[in-house]
Queue: 4 jobs
Job 1
Amino acid sequence: MATAQFRLAQLARPGVAPDAPARLTAPKATIPLADKRQLLLGIHERYGTLVLLRIGQAIEEVRHEPALNALLRTQSPLDLVERWRRLERYVHSRHRCILEEAGDRRVVVRHISLTPGASPHATEDVLVMGVMIALLEASGCDGLRAAFGDSGDPVYVGGKFHESGVRVIRDTGIWRFDWTSYDPALNRREPANRQGTNLFQEQTSLPPVANACSAIIGGDVAYRWNVSTLAARLNVSVRTLQRRLGEVPVKFQEIVRAVQLREASRLLLDTGHDLTEIGFCCGFSDYSHFSREFKKHTNLSPSEFRRKFAVTTPHYRSSSPS
């Protein structure tokens, strides 16, 4: 999963890591932790902190990645941070982002290790902060300003990185992000594509309220939908939506699950994306959850489903769990 694992060879622009081993530059290669740290240290020693931060800007080069677009379908900067945290849990990352402070125009994030007595290496902190800068700006944050810890000088402001912000860094694991405004119209995600092969068809025989819910959920499958947020999108009260849903033959969670499986089937049949990445994009908590639910409804694992029903070979197919 390129976005989750930070396959540095895919994110780092050509020439940044010319000495990287071949196993790190193979398409969709998963980078072992020790190799990742060695590569980061080499980049830092050769080019400095700002280059590590700028690596995140290369998300523009992988906009086709479904996990990236799942992150950018955010409804607010805080929602983006929460999606990132869910991605970390999904891939069982050793490192996690903790939300220390949240406001209308500011978030403070701490980067930690789940290993007792350990901390992420400073270069890992810098890399992930750079990706967060790129994601926040791409999601629609205008006037974004970023700084490490309690440093007075920003490392990023006005669309530019600043050397003064990295001269003295007391704590690379604390990041402060501020923005002047948030405009979803500035979001640079790719438009959703709902066309293509699909063996989980829309249940048009359901009452209009169920189909309305299905349509909204389908526009952002990775989001953690509940009745309250859905009612707000439908411009009705929670009580009204609950009453109307109580009149249909399916439960709310069954509507959500049907939409998730429908989108998963489309991605399985029409793309060659990793199975783990598809599970994240469709809102499942981890790959085991995705595989279990998919098999429960189809009697086939995701990989078996792809092999059995894909009419044509996707443009790219990677090795994925069964």
Note: Residues 37 and 124 are 7 Å apart (CA to CA).
Job 2
Amino acid sequence: MRGIADIQVISRIFAKISDRFRHMGCLSLKIVVISIYMGKDNRKRNNKKRLNDGYEPQGDAAALSTPLEAMGLSEKTEGILRDGGVAIARDLAKRCAGDLYRIRYVGKRECIEVSNALKKLGLSFRPDEPKVESPDVQNVKKPQEKERRQEDNKNKNSADKNNLKKQQNEKNVQNKASERNNKQSAPVQNKNQKNKQEKNGRPKYDYKPYDNVNLHDLVFGKRERPAPEKPQKEQLTPDSIVKFCRQGKWGYKDWKGNVLIQPVYDNAYPFREDRACVEKDGLLGFIDKKNELVIDYKYDSATSFSEGLAAVSIGEKTGYIDKDGAEVLPMEFDVATAFENGKAIVRQDGRWGVLDRETLKVLWR
């Protein structure tokens, strides 16, 4: 019966593809179809032999006879295994982990789920068979053949090197010759161009000065921005006093690093005109170089002394005081800056003006 079924299947396959392969001979076509079909059939038989090779899994007989429904698998995994012909735990323990992937719709997640279920029953998959590697006689080389091939490789490498050197020498010779030709031909071309220009009556213009000039610079002139001036550090002298910070508090040192005023202030500013602005409890005052409080802590903001005056603020208004703390200009400005070159910038009621140091009058804009 098996042979009759095979012949019927072969005849059906031959009838389907006979129209496509009319150029082939009838006998050769039949041989191709038979070999394809028998090859597939042999693969199927080998898989069945693998499962029915007499291997008996180790474990408790009761655990091996556990039905598939009692293994605690999900409904999806249970349905896939039942369609693949698995009924009890023995059918799974007979297989290797790789054989389980041959069941349709079985993936890594299902394989891990089955492995955990078998571990709970004290079972495991069939161990993988060790691969026996057959010695490849063709890859075994005799020592004489190795030596001969090594010599051949050396000869080839030396020949390749010689060829490369020859090619490089030829290129160098060609490059030198081309450079000579270019030098000789260049002046001739310049003469020809001059002759053409003289004939046309048009002078030759030199555009090189305009290479780096755009249209805006050509029309309106090129404006060069002045380079930014780097702030210069004040050079220390024997009379210099420098502020320093220690544990969040500020004090003052001399130019050698000796502490003159201990760090007791919340913030400190440099000495200007023998006065320094310091901060305590959120208010600003002024001290002298002997650390004596000259002007009391009562200002919200202040500038260092410049040209004998300092701008101080109480609330939102600003005025000017002298070194003794006397008010020179009342607190009437919204903004006021320190004096520089006899001038200071002030703002009052939205107007800006320039304050003169000598007259203490404002030139409003």
Note: The chain has eight helices and 15 strands.
Job 3
Amino acid sequence: MPDAQGDSLKRLRILLVSHLYPENDKDRSTTRALHNFVRNWESQCEVLVIRAVHISLKRPFAHPWFSRGSVEGVPVSSVIVISMLKARVLFPLGPLVLLAWKRFKPDVIVAHMKPNYRWAGWLARFLGKPFVAGIHGSDILASVPGFQAAIKHADLIACRSPSIAKRFKEFCPQWVERVFIANSGIEASEILPESAFRAKAGLWQGRTRFITVSKLLPGKNHDLVLRGLGQLRHLDWDYVIIGDGPLQSSLAELVKALGLEQRVVFRGWLSRAEALEEMERSQVFLMPSAPETFGLAYLEAMAKACLVVCAEGWGVDGIIRDGVDGFTVKPTGLSELTCLLSRLLSLSPEQKVELLVRVRVLVASLTEEAVALRYLDEIRSVAQRPRVLASRRCPEAKVVGR
């Protein structure tokens, strides 16, 4: 006899709208962060993805108006969206309404990133369905008036990290009660067993290997890390930098000026598998990056038994607890960073074990499945509760239940 609760969950239909979604299995041009949520939701509900392709009439475009694909079996409909903001028009909406209403009949509409909020919210109001807005770092940095207008009808607001949630609450205190955290997760199979964490702590003697894996960009603060390490030449450490980017030559010159050529190694771009292997051979992951939406690299480093250092107020700050299962530092604080690096280089064997065991407990709670199901619980809650809606055609409020 089928489980009644499971049968109920499968009836939930989610329409996800975003341009941050791959077009098909071969598409590697965009992140798969949202897809990682969806593929874990599918065991409990049905999901249709509308991949918005935003274009301007000022430039020619070759993308078809409408196309269908799939990513690991998840149906993806790519739709051209022409934004004419002065006229407050988004085209085409007719086919989207037909697709969503006649064919899929969603229970909830979820939209990620600012360009999609306005028309996804309009679609939700047209269909009389709940609307969930997913907020990313660049959304917070966008113009506040336009940003607030785009999400004012959202029933829930999914912030992609605690730091984004904090900034959102400062910008929009009137909507604090709608906010929840929807951070990314790590594949469970990539997390080393606890025995490996303890073994790594036991082998962490003598030289400490620091590592950073990121694009060589100004906000990543590689120069700050190099200057901090430059003040600790008398201590035993190596530093591996993985990634490429526009700052590569200037960072190499800085290494030379600091006299660190024998201590710092630039590995350039590596595959993800190779980067994870390098993390497993290191003890401390350094990336005081700001601004930083979340930073999956922090989770990858924790999964490979590294202590992580992030920028205070950015990235995984709020996921990790400073001094408990990770470390935070001001992104412009050279003296503070230098003190922290000195402290890490002088940890006792007992402290290393305690810290890495806590890191293992934390990263085990941040698997892709775990974070996706927490996100789904929030979506399910808004789909099930009565809501107050105001129709554009009929402005008086009405209570709607499922």
Note: The mean pLDDT is 84.
Job 4
Amino acid sequence: MVSPEEIYERISRLSRVEGIYDAWKDYRDQVTAYLTEHAPEGGSLLILGAGRLGDLDVPALLQHFESITLADLDPEAMREGLAYWGLQAEEVTENGEITGTDVEASDTEDSSVTTPGGFFDTGFSGEKKPKLTLRQVNLTGITKEHYLEWIRLILEGYEQKLDPEEFSERLEAYLKKVYGSTFRHDPHLGFCRYDHAAILGVHSQLNNTFAYLWMVLGDLLGPAPESVTERIFAVIRSNTGVITDRVSRAVQQSAMESCFVGLEVERIGTEGPVDGAAQAFAGYAALHIEGEAELSDPVDLIWDYDKANHKSYRMRLMICS
């Protein structure tokens, strides 16, 4: 029997898009130009959901901003991006530990370097304040352990051949437990800690993993009754807006001047809104109506996210201040 851990790792590999640094170049150049044209030189920038750094030209941003913090739940993805760009950074783990990464373009191995007095060698002429920081951040409070238990419950339901009602009740109960336990999660981005923040193509990913795992396992194990899918998707969607609003407000509060937001307006060739992005649009509109934020300078770009699988998005970039 394959373990939930093995299944999770296999599915994670399946979801990985290859060739992003070449395929995303035009989109990356446009997004990078948008940020540098709408933010004055200097100051600090927080990039949420930085991932493998394929959608931003980090060296160009380092020429423009005084300091940049890259934040993501997956530090390995960010280290891969650092390796591609040939950059080095101070690294802060989710529990606040600080290490140093020294990454060459041709070397994907990490090394941690501590210098006397508690400062870390960032490779930037002995500056005590690092120009580039890599920070592990969980925006939602949902962890890998939650997903492993979700996989285990699905496998158990298939193995026991549960009737649709009992299967639905078990999965619904677990989802509600997870969402309830993470309802007040604080990603600890800080209040006015940065001059600018950027969150691009992230809202749609915040609460999509439970559904994605369910669909992939259904392809592998055989389709479940539609009633089960409908009930668990209803629970997931009912919490998506809560999560996107909570994250949007945390990001907005972390920036003193402006927040750059990128949301999927549509998946090209597919009808219907993009879950997560649609709820985030509504949330930002509410902030604007309530007078808590100003939205300005919207621009639409085409992001050929995964050409091999014909997956492209029309992205809307805007400034929330």
Note: Residues 102-128 have pLDDT under 50 and may be disordered.
